[in-house]
Amino acid sequence: MSSLKKTIIIFSLALTFCITSPSNGTFAVVKKIDDNQQNYTYILKDEASIDKVKSLITSQHPKAKLDVIKEVGIISVNINDSLNEEKTIEEINNEIHPYVEDQGVLSNISPPITQPDIKSNKTFKTSSIPQKDLIARDDSNDTNIRNLKSSKFIPFNWYLEDITSNYKTEYINKGKGTSIALIDSGVDINHLLLKNNLNLENSRNYTGNDNSVNDDQGHGTQVAGIIASIAPETEIIPYKVMGETGGESIWVIEAIVDAANQNVDTINLSLGTYKSTSSKEDSVLIKAYDRALQYAKKKGVVIVASAGNDSSSLDELKKNKMLHIPGGLHNLITVSSNNKRDLLSSYSNYGKEIDFSAPGGDMGADFKTTGTIDYNELIITSYPKYLPNTPLDQKVGIPQGYTLSLGSSLSAPQVSAASTLLISEYEKRHGKNPNINKIENYLKRGSVDLGSKGKDEQFGNGKINIYNSLNKVIDN
């Protein structure tokens, strides 16, 4: 296929977060924080004192709404009274001060943007792309197009072929008996590619009063499509922590703990933010993440997070007392993005905290100098069928329910899916689950070394190759 190149203007590149139709099925009770409520979070010195602290707050302030994460000693207080907010918080501070290690307001999380877009004043002429290179638009109901590995999606499924050695992994293992917690913006629960993978009985919605985990913005559906394509028998459990306009950081902390309590095998965190280690307010969120991640790791959960999409050195950020979280923290696997040419993607963060890389797509070698995007370097994944295709998708002929995209958000789920395949294969051969260190070792032994020899700040231990790693399990 010829190179599909054309000058366009990117409306917005993947941001920091590497972040509807009626729903059916059974869902858990959800929590709602109204727009006019103020969220104030306490991290306790001793997790065992949480019931005492909860009792002190509710007895004196019965109208306050509490989110209690008992396992990690965190209480979030929501005051639905702007006039008396400061007074109420001050009273609570005085009442529970002896039990508190840290406190502050947790930041919101913003909805991620991953697709390149076309500005209306820079339209792209479809006629300039050879018709043989366009995906046929009249076959959107074709069952063969449900699978991202379909020949109809060449050249945009190159990344799947790459990390599975031309899809040979499916002849070894498909992830039977494993589960991944998708902590994200929800998912299109009726998508043909995803519906057989979804576990909606154990799903959670933290963003609203309805019980739907349907995806309002598309990010979670993109991530889920990659998981389902690599590990088609792995169960995906959606934990919706972002709506169309974002969400609360406390919901992510709750979701990590809830997922660990449900004994999932892997947690995927394709989201993130930047926080200052010298800021008292930011330190609360950093500690909250540390506690939640440590709790999940103790429960034996593999946690995978995206590195972020700002072309930043995580090491330089640390020198300036800034952290990208959760990617870059301890107790998880941090994943950078490489492009089709096995180079670090132009947007990907990097640093000593990078453990592995996986293909996340890119704009092409000429983008920075000429603004020309190489469509062959983008990757295809699923997208809510009830949301409109992007202008770029429409120009290339991508069917409804799929999209061209890029970002370390889409690299992380490749590692998450790889971990479940390795867990499933190990359990099949040994009758028990491997520990987290074994999983990381299998990933490392199967990876392809890119960049500087050995572990480096761009690709970590290398670009994952799931087929190679599965063979290490077989040979063990």
Key traits:
476 residues; alpha/beta; Rossmann fold; Alpha-Beta Plaits; seven-stranded parallel beta sheet; four-stranded antiparallel beta sheet; globular
Q: Would you give an account of this structure?
A:
By secondary structure, the chain is of the alpha/beta class. It has twelve helices and 19 strands. It has helices at residues 50-60, 85-96, 158-163, 219-230, 249-261, 280-298, 314-319, 367-370, 391-396, 412-430, 436-446, 466-475, and strands spanning 5-7, 38-44, 65-69, 74-79, 100-104, 108-109, 179-184, 204-205, 235-240, 247-248, 266-269, 273-276, 302-306, 322-325, 333-338, 356-359, 372-374, 379-382, 402-405. The chain has a seven-stranded parallel β-sheet with strand order 8-9-7-11-13-15-16, sandwiched between helices. It has a four-stranded antiparallel β-sheet with strand order 3-4-2-5, sandwiched between helices. Strands 1-17 form a two-stranded antiparallel ribbon. The longest helix is centred in the middle third of the chain and has 19 residues, at 280-298. 51% of the residues are buried. Residues 1-37 and 118-129 have low confidence and may be disordered.
